[in-house]
Amino acid sequence: MWREVSAESQARQRPGTERCERGAGDIVAPPGHWRLAWQAAGGSLPYSLLIDRRAFVAALILLLALLTASLAYLAMGSSPLPPQAVPAALVGRGDMMAVFLVQELRLPRLAAACLTGAAFGVAGCLMQTLARNRLATPGIIGIDNGATAFAVASVIGLGVSLAPPAMALAGATTAAALTFGLAAGGGVRGYRFIVAGIGVGAVFGAITQLLLAKVHIDTANAAYPWTVGSLNARPAGAVMLLAVGLSLGLGAALWLTRALSLMRFSDAVASGLGLRVARRRWQVLAVSVLLTGLAVAVAGPVGLIGLIGPEIARSLSSPRGVPVVASALAGALVMVLADLAGRILLSPIEIPVGIVTAVVGGPWLLWILLRPASRNLA
């Protein structure tokens, strides 16, 4: 990634490159990057870190947009609050009703929206990169429906709030295994994988509807949020488990960033560059299944977040890398805005977030199919 040049060549270096002394030579940061270097105590060589400028700026823009949307989320609702009252309510000051609305009602729901949106966004980015196809999201290839079917089965059969996360993970794993098994011979690339996932998702969707049709109406109502996607009154245990899983999954995704960049090439090229393709492929799949299962256990099958979030991140970020962090931020932003719209559009009637994302995601899916392929997945 870096090249060394002699002192005589310094005058010929392109404008905008950054240099750092390293012995007799200079290390030049590649165009479009910042290079941070530091010297460890007692070390003979400096440590360096490259930061993609465009990716950093994109992540910063998305973070600021998410913070703005979060402020609006806490202030708006059936009982609106002045924006300036939200910071005071967050620390327990000001009007007691404002404190109750922010801390007890809206803040936990905002946390669930950010966590689930980020998990769906990262999972979608990983699956799209793995399959080199913008349609290969957990929702479209059946992983969401598998997790939903198992979560609904746990609610109907057990009625325990801590059961859905474990069952959702089992369902996501089962759906992923079935999809890969049915696509055997075609790998994870190409439309055979997509068609197999659509078929698996349809089967699990039918199983979910059958389960709901065979139980008492009260039990079916308890399981209903897992069929359409909702953030209303989410179990605190499931949200906490998702927070832990997202921290681990995001860290693993960042660790796999180099492998993900190489996976955009053919398997022969990636193997020639030293990548253990099969091992990395299973690791990426495991992280996607973990994030999808935990997110579905909290919010239900809001799968189109995994399609919209990575596409926004990819359009803002540099084509040189895989926008894992930007996908997490974009997914969280879309989820927060969608849930906010569902809360206020027909207030006091609430529209589940899954329905809002479906209304927005349908045209977005058509737009993706009609526009040229993204250069990041080419």
Automatic annotation (TrEMBL):
The chain crosses the membrane at residues 55-76, 107-127, 139-160, 166-186, 193-217, 237-256, 284-309, 321-341, 353-370. Residues 1-24 are annotated as: Disordered. Coiled coil: none annotated. It is found in: Cell membrane. It holds the Pfam family FecCD. Keywords: Cell membrane, Membrane, Transmembrane, Transmembrane helix, Transport. PANTHER family: FERRIC ENTEROBACTIN TRANSPORT SYSTEM PERMEASE PROTEIN, FERRIC ENTEROBACTIN TRANSPORT SYSTEM PERMEASE PROTEIN FEPG. This is Iron ABC transporter permease. It comes from Billgrantia antri.
